[in-house]
Amino acid sequence: MAAWIQATIILAVVVGLHVPLGDYMARVLEGSRHNRAEEALYRVCGINPEKEQTWRHYLTAVLAFSFISIAALFTLFTLQGKLPWSTGHEGMPWRLALHTAVSFTTNTSWQNYAGESTTGHLAVMAGLGVQAFASAAVGICIALALVRGLVRRSTDDLGNFWVDLLRTIFRVLVPIAVLGGLVLMVGGVVQGLGGGHTVTTVAGGAEQASSDGPVASWEALKLFSGDGGGVFNANSAHPFENPTAWTNAFEIVLMLLVPTACIRMFGRLIGSLKQSWTLLTVVGILFALLLAAGTFAQSAHTGTVTEAVGGQYEGTETRFGIPGSTLFGVAATGSADGAANASYDSFSSLGGGVLLAAMMLGKIAPGGTGSGLYGLIVVVLVAVFIGGLMVGRTPEYLRKRIGYAEMRWVVVYALIPPTVILACSAVALATGNAQSSMGNAGAHGLTELVYAYTSNTNSNGSAMAGFNGATDFHNVLMVVAMLAGRYLPMVCVLALAGRLARQQPGVVTVGTLRAQGVNFVVLATAAAVILALLNFLPALSLGTIADGLM
User: Fold this and answer.
1) What separation in angstroms does the CA of 463 have from each of 55, 108, 428, 538?
2) Is there a contact between 97 and 72 (Cβ–Cβ < 8 Å)?
3) Is the whole model's pTM more than 0.90, yes or no?
4) By C-alpha distance, which of 249, 190, 187, 184 is closest to 220?
5) Which of 167-171, 194-198, 228-232, 359-363 has the lowest average pLDDT?
6) By CB count within 10 A, which of 100, 388, 437, 522 is most buried?
7) How far apart are CA 11 and CA 5, in angstroms?
8) From the CA atom positions of the chain, what is the Rg in Å?
């Protein structure tokens, strides 16, 4: 009962806060006025803020910005040892540097290294921190372009990427980062620029090195941006990152807040809050199903040990217990954040499978910053298309016709993640590199492998730590998975937005399918679940389900 009370309070806070934040985002991101600071940046960067872009030009700007970001991060990581505030750390080998640069630019933040022993303060602040802002903003920019495609008519223009990017960073993300960092510092999360301390342990009187750094500022940023990477290898299980039960609850709120606010922003921008509440209901049902399944799996009394202690406590952070660890895990995988306050590899077989399923849903429960919204809209378009065929009407959504040309991009979008995940897993198995990296044999080892490439492809970044991704093979193959999983869906979304923007709005009649109400919520929820099951049921059967049955 205590677990559900905790979850209810936290989710109520998220729902309450998403209203003012979503309204604010809609107001500042679609406003026509530029402030003086933004105008100065436009002049320095040679940007014409009044010139809008077609979907192809918008995509070119996204890819160019991302490529430059990867190159800058790669340079920073390889030269780290020669730069100030390296805190004694040398530069990364080029394969690890490439993987890390791509990982944080794509908002994945999978770390094939231990943070406290690899990255200095400059790499965290000027590298990972900057990209946490930028990669989150890119996702919101793509979502804005798709919303404009739904709202506008007879035009090729979807906005200006550079204007969207700067507004998102400075008007939305920076204020949240400042406020969140201050709250975490009050809660006891460390913040400083020291090189660490040597302390004497309580047992045995031995000496142990203790690191610190700009943790509180980074912790807030990694959580609300969907980044998830940790300053410490233990991530949010480390007491310097997550000291108390109330900071744990606050961090869960941070992970869920911006993706949920994007749904409210969508309702404001299209002029229909009923639509935003409909989408939020779909998200709420999916999240509740995941949380219920995860809590049940972790609380099940199977075997002598679990019967005695009351649940699956292996790998669980004892400060938070099963409820706090399970809720954090579902929030992290459901929001595409990837942070962890427990060892996901030590979750029960079915409990770990719930976290894997949350990622396989396609970042929609509620998903990443921006990516959750456009992923959810794609699911809605699938539901609209199916519903339209069922009633014998041309499928329409927000008075835009969803025909063959539009559904072609929707279907390709839906097929990209499972194709990349399963293909990369198959290549790793066929070459023998998967088997040598698995921490466990059999079904659980297969789950570790599929989890790793699902996390990389779907921009999550969480890991089952038994899987060793820190090899040359996996560093390179994961780069392919992250780039394909991040940018190929963006191509589909922007192409779809371009087609929708050129349409004239249709006429609503009594036969038009209403994309709201109980029936549509059930249809959209079922579409999301069926898409995931059809793509991944064989892999889940051989991995997670087989492991659980054994």
Assistant:
1) 34, 11, 17, 21
2) no
3) yes
4) 184
5) 194-198
6) 100
7) 10
8) 23
